[in-house]
Amino acid sequence: MFPELNNLLNTTPDRAEQGKLTLLCDAKTDGSFLVHHFLSFYLKANCKVCFVALIQSFSHYNIVGQKLGVSLTTARERGQLVFLEGLKSSVELFFRAQEETHPLQFLREANTGNLQPLYEFVQEALKPVDGEETAWKYPVLLVDDLSVLLSLGMGAVAVLDFVQYCRATVCWELKGNMVALVHDSGDAEDEENDLLLNGLSHQSHLILRAEGLATGFCRDVHGQLRILWRRPLQPTAQQDRSLTYQYKIQDKNVSFFARGMSPAIL
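-> structure tokens emitted (266 positions)
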């Protein structure tokens, strides 16, 4: 968990808000450090986490998590973390019986337009369990990343429907939170990606957008982070508030500073 980012967002694990959708976006850079932050943040906050990981393996997230002070292995064993490893599951899918349902069932269907099995996986993972030994604070759905579903043939409308169903269950019914990463390809002709990004932006309460530097690679400044607090139910954008910081990723931390105020420059 990155303390400086918590300070920028003015939040701590013991007083995190509920019922919110946070959109993580990266453009011309790797925004995965934001995923690792929220994963460790909610595990430390004693939340029940369903992590739909479509990019990296469990071991990858676990290694990074250990640097941030959490053990995904321990969290999974005690029932706090439900982990869907997309890379591994996609291979296992083709060796299962045709009748058996699978969260990534759409991969073996000719018409890839139905994410209901994936939603049902999330619903089952986060539903309250009677007599559960540990009382978790509230449920959290984390997805890394939704853009992969577009690459696998899903349409933006189907992905937005999936998000809407998840929000209805996790944020509204269970009073939990949802965090999802989406790539901004920067391609004006990629209409599906633009539709997904714009649709999620209008639903989100918080948008964290990691961007590469316009000047290119810099050893001491890795990119800039735009933070936008939104109120989706407001009729105007007058209630929105935004800040922009530059950052440098270190081994166990991320340093943030105002644009042009990097310690290396000063």
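The chain has a mean pLDDT of 84.
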